[in-house]
Amino acid sequence: MRTTLSVIKADIGSVGGHIKPSAQVLKAVRDHIETQGKKKIIDHFISHTGDDIAILMTHTGGVGNEGIHKMAWDAFVTGTNVAKSQGLYGAGQDLLKDAFSGNVKGMGPAVAEMEIEERPNEPFLFFAADKTEPGAYNLPLFLGFADPMYCPGLMLSPSMAAGFKFVIMDVNNTEGDRIIELNSPEDSYDIAALLRDNGRFVVESIWSRHTGDQAASVSTSRLRNIAGKYTGKDDPVHLVRTQAQFPATGEILSPYSIGHYVAGTMRGSHNGPMMPCKQNTTISFFDGPAVVTCAAFCVHNGKLTEPADAFDHPFWDWVRGNVSQKAQEIRRQGFSGPAMLPYDDLEYGGIVDKMKKLDKKFKIREGEKTPVSV
Ligand code: 13P
Ligand code: 13P
Ligand code: MG
Ligand code: MG
Fold first, then answer.
1. Could you please report the per-residue DSSP string of 120-140?
2. 221: alpha, beta or left? (left if phi > 0; alpha if psi -120 to 50)
3. What is the rounded distance in angstroms from the CA atom of residue 311 to the CA atom of residue 123?
C-alpha cells in the first residue's frame, strides 16, 4: 500500500514564556483533527516538544496535499484562538500568513512528509526539536547514514552497501528551492563541506541507492526568511524509516549521544548543545537547552502502532547529564565569542540598530599617520 506520512508542526502559543503549549490548546488541536480528519486521514498522533505542537498524520493523499495541509492549518488557527483566549505567550507565533493558500510551506509551520510503498514491516522515527534550526539534524543524519563509525550497517548489511543519496537545500535562497544531490560514500567530503554550515545548507531528504526508496524527510523552513525578521526559531521536525535497506533504529539514534552544539536556545541567538529528551518535554534553562524528541512507530495499512519513546531509557539520562554540563560550559562565557551566533546570524534586529548607532561614533584618531609598510 502507498501511504503518506505527514508531520506538520507549529508554535501557536505557550505557557509561562516559550515553555509548552497549554492543555486546552493541545485539546483544541486534537479535537479539530479528530473531527475534521475522519474522512481525510487514516491515523494521527499529536504531541508537543517544548512549545511546538506536531500533528503526525497518515493518509493516501500524497505529499503537499491541499486538504491535509488545510486541515492542519485550520487546527492551528483554532488552537491559536484558544491560546489568545488564555493569554498565552506568542499566541499564533508561527502562523505568519493571514490566509491559507494551497500548502503550509512558506507560511510558518514546519513540514516533513514522505509517500512510501509500505514494507511488510515498516518501522519509522519521528523527531521534533525545539529552540533550534533545521540544520541541527545535519550532523546526526550524516553520521547515521554515511559514517560506519556510527552506522556499522554500512559495512555489515549488503542492502546498505551502495550508500545513500543526500538532497541538500540552500535555505538562504528565498527565490525557490535551491538544491543539490550528492551520493555517499563517493561524495562524502563534499556532503560534509556543505553540512558543516547548519545555518545555510540543510539535509532535505535521503534516499536508498540500493532500492531508490526515500529514507528521510526533514523540514527546511527558516522563519526569519519568511517573516523578514525574528519571530521565533524554526524548531524542525523530521521522519526517518529504519531497518532492512535503511539504518537500524539504534544507528540513527546513536549520534544524538554527542549532544552537538547547535544554534538556538535563548532568543534563538546562541550556540548550545542539543539534548535528547523524552516525549512532551518542556523547556527551562536559558530557554533551552535545545531539545530533540523521538517517537518510534510501525505503520501498517496506514495504521500507527503506539509510539515507543526512543530517548526514554537510562542510557539517555547519562547523556542528558553530559549535555547539561556542555550547556553550562559554553553558557559560563555569556555573550563572548562562539557562545553567541555570529553577527550576520543574530536573530534580533536590535543589535543591528545598535551597531549602526555605534558605527557613527567611531572616529580615526587625529594626528596619527597610517603606518607605511617598508
Ligand atoms: P534483531 O536480531 O533483534 O532483529 O536485531 C537486528 C538489528 O537490526 C539490530 O540493529
Ligand atoms: P521558540 O521559537 O521556541 O518560540 O523560542 C523563541 C525564543 O526566542 C526563545 O528564547
Ligand atoms: Mg515560542
Ligand atoms: Mg519552539
1. SS-EEEEEEEESB-GGGGHHH
2. beta
3. 16
Per this entry, what is the length of the chain?
A: 374
The three three-digit cell numbers of residue 111, written as one number:
513540514
Instruction: Give the pLDDT confidence of 212-261 residue by residue, as tens digits.
Output: 999 999 999 888 888 888 888 999 999 999 999 999 999 999 999 999 99
Select from 11, 49, 286 the residue to mutate for testing ligand 2; criterion: most ligand atoms less than 8 Å from CB.
11
Identity of the residue numbered 103: N
Is residue 232 in contact with ligand 2, taking CB distance under 6 Å?
yes
Nearest to 256 by CA among 277, 237, 282: 277
pTM of the model: 0.96
Q: Are 242 and 252 in contact (CB under 8 A)?
A: yes
Q: Domain map of the chain by residue range?
A: 1-109, 118-364
Within its chain, how far is the Cα of 164 from the centroid? 21
Q: Are 181 and 167 in contact (CB under 8 A)?
A: yes
Quick one: which atom of ligand 1 is closest to the CA of 249? 10
The span from the CA of 283 to the CA of 367, in Å, is 55
Q: What is the CATH number of domain 1-109?
A: 3.30.70
What amino acid positions are annotated as catalytic residues? 11, 230, 233
User: Which pLDDT tens digit goes with each residue over 17-44?
Assistant: 999 999 999 999 999 999 999 999 999 9
244: alpha, beta or left? (left if phi > 0; alpha if psi -120 to 50): left
In the sheet where 2-10 sits, what is the strand order?
Answer: 43-49, 52-59, 2-10, 110-117
C-alpha cell at 247: 539504518
